[in-house]
Amino acid sequence: MKIVNVEVWSDFVCPWCWIAKRRLEKAIAALAGHVEVTVTTKSYLLAKGMSPIDYTGALYQKFGNPAAATGMMAAVREHGRSEALIYNFETMRFGDTSDAHAMIKSIASPALAELVSERIYKAATTDGINIFDRQILVALAKEVGVSDLNVDFNSESIAYEIATDEAQANTIANGVPLFLFNGKLHVSGAQPVAVFEKALIDAAVEQPEGVGSADGAVCTADGCAA
Asked: pLDDT tens digit string along 14-25?
């Protein structure tokens, strides 16, 4: 069986990242038995150093145009519904997610880290839960089964890991979500499931020729494209 490692860069305040995550998961499931996939998560900060603010207000600031911001939110909601994901922008917040990423990096088990990541996405996007509160983050982790969690939110080594992740992403493409398949080809944005399937198949070749890429809707520090 062919093996593919997928490196995934994302941020919990990136509205396209949860959608893209779900589509990658569908692609992996569709190829089960043909391609063995491991997923390595990487951090990316869209709002480093920024105190949390109302998400719609943040979008209005980024776009400078309420109509453009409203259109972007409508597009995200529509794509989210297609993946059974609910986007409640009226309760969502935008800000520095360093603490959330630090907690994920503190969880030794990839399986548990994945469960916690999924819970953080739902908490921030659907449930209106404040993911910028450290106590709430720990409670979310415990909610999905992480019992012995010791997080040093002020760890310099973890901060360095996050910065290294971000720097690596920026050498590949601009913004998140970003997916790198076997270090050879990348997919940028919340692409259709078929695009992720093709990337997995192409990367599964022992010696893929060249580097392929595909670009879709992404979020950068300057805003999110519809």
From this structure: 999 999 999 999
